[in-house]
Amino acid sequence: MTLMKSIASSPRARVLVVDDEENQRVGLASMIASWGYRTEIASDGQEALEKLVAMPIDVVVTDLMMPRLGGAELLSQMAAQSINVPAIVTTAFGNIETAVSTIHDLGAFWFLEKPIQPAVMRVLLERAATQSELTVESERLRRTLSYQGLLGELVGQAPVMQQLFSLIQQVAPSRASVFITGESGTGKELAARAIHQNSPRKDGPFVAINCAALPETLIESELFGHEKGAFTGAVERRAGCFELAQQGTLLLDELGEMPIGTQAKLLRVLEDSRVRRLGGKTEMEVNVRVIASTNRVPESALKEGKLREDLFYRLNVFHIHLPPLRERKTDIPRLAEALIGALNSKHGCRVTGLDADVAEALQAHHWPGNVRELRNALERAAILAGEGNIRLAHLPPSVNPVSRKAGADPRHEDPLSVMLPVGTTVADAEKALIFKTLEHTKNNKTRASEILGISLKTMHNKLKEYESSAS
Fold it and tell me: How far is CA 65 from each of CA 20, 101, 121, rounded to the nearest angstrom?
């Protein structure tokens, strides 16, 4: 039996019939039910929207001309709310222009003129139900793939990460506020981005503000915006983060570092969904999903008076905790692979992988700085390696087990080190370091400059200086 035939006769497929004329909708629903579908009815587009939100619908059959909310408006609202259900539009006032507009501009599955021919309707329902089933299956496969170790920029196959991916997938489609906790460097912003990218707001902006990085005098301006002349230095009107994140997502990173007075104002904005710029006289309505994060333990921040209790409970509708890297070390090889790919693109390297002892060293390290520390270690190693595999000598001393051995002198074992006797001048030390780096990069001055953290112009100037002093 084909997929199309099995769906047509399966009670799983639910069809919503929308028509303002009772006889039309009841009669059409009865006919569709006789073909093996479950049916729901609605008297206009508004009631249809409510049912689409409240229950799973596989196909919509809607009249075009209806009071309150017509078929065209219904399709527009479905698109705006990311309700991806195929819709068959019917009307007694059809023409070619209307059909083209309905199908192409409004995204309808098909267009039918009344009176409806049962045979045609049945075939269209079978095809629409098949499309709906394939859409659901595609989403299921997408989620399955994400559970295999990737969700947005998050990487992990450890059970604790699979649970995290599941939580993100569940909360993302909702409007609930999310509170993300975890140590520094665990990827709290990446988790927030994953929530945004898997939500109906994915086409809207994602705006992040680090509450710990802004002085108290500026944080309210950054959040709420200001009018020209609102304070000294306000030379022009400026939109705040809530305005910039309109129809999207706003991440309040390190919320526990926000001043208590600002927290009170933030709470009011969250409760009223209205914001007023500093120095402004009117309020504006905002439609923003707020995600908060902190590396503090929330309960400790509450006891210390660093975090308002009412604000915490307002934002902590859904809690997600990111595990430290030391609790999911089995993910390190996959993380390293993903990070090396990104670093190759960033620095123009051609690193292919890790030596076996490097992989062991990475998994043996405690990683107090979590994924951020791993990325920094690999960035240094990738730049030093340039191409091929990353070797132990490329790892920073804090990660390299050879360098950490008691009594061992890493300068004797690291071919990339520069040995300098006591009494070497700073100028001579700088010269030796530049030549050693150029030797490693095979005289690639651009890469050597990048490793040393100097500009290419400075590199050329230094080499000219050494050349002139030698002559």
Answer: 8, 14, 19
Give the model confidence (pLDDT) of 93-115 as tens digits.
766 566 667 666 777 888 888 88
From CA 78, how far away is CA 49, in angstroms rounded?
A: 7
Span 41-89, pLDDT tens digits: 999 999 999 888 778 888 999 998 888 898 888 988 888 877 888 999 8
Provide CATH 3.40.50.300 ranges for the chain.
169-323
- Ranges in the chain annotated CATH 3.40.50.2300: 3-142
Structure tokens at 109: 């599955």
CATH no. of 418-471: 1.10.10.60
pLDDT more than 70, % of the chain:
87
Q: Cα(87)–Cα(60) distance, rounded to whole angstroms?
A: 5
Q: H-type helices in 62-117, by residue range?
A: 71-80, 96-100
Q: What is the pLDDT of residues 402-433, one digit of tens each?
A: 765 544 444 444 555 666 666 678 887 888 88
| Span 237-265, average pLDDT | 91
The CA-based angle 277-280-281, given to 5 degrees, is: 130
**Which residues of the chain does CATH 1.10.10.60 include?**
418-471
Whether residue 415 is preceded by a cis peptide bond, meaning omega within 30 degrees of 0, is: no
CATH 3.40.50.2300 fits 3-142, yes or no: yes
**Average pLDDT of 393-405?**
79
Q: Check if the beta carbon of residue 45 is closer than 8 Å to that of residue 18.
A: yes
C-beta of residue 137 within 8 angstroms of C-beta of residue 145 = no
Other CB atoms within a 10 A radius of the CB of residue 264 amount to: 12
Q: What is the pLDDT of residue 96?
A: 59
> CATH number of the domain at 169-323, out of 1.10.10.10, 3.30.470.30, 3.40.50.300, 3.40.190.10?
3.40.50.300
Confirm if 373 and 185 have CB atoms less than 8 A apart.
yes
Residue 335 pLDDT exceeds 70: yes
Q: Would you state the structure tokens that stand for residue 465, as one six-digit string?
A: 């200086």
Average per-residue pLDDT for the chain: 84
Residues 6+ apart with CB under 8 A from 246: 204, 205, 286, 287, 288
Q: Distance between CA 272 and CA 286 in Å, rounded?
A: 9
Nearest by Cα to 186 from 368, 15, 407: 368
The whole-angstrom separation of Cα 69 and Cα 371 is 50
Its CATH class, for the domain covering 325-417, is: mainly alpha
Per-residue confidence (pLDDT) for residue 4, from 0 to 100: 39
**What is the pLDDT, as a whole number, of residue 437?**
84
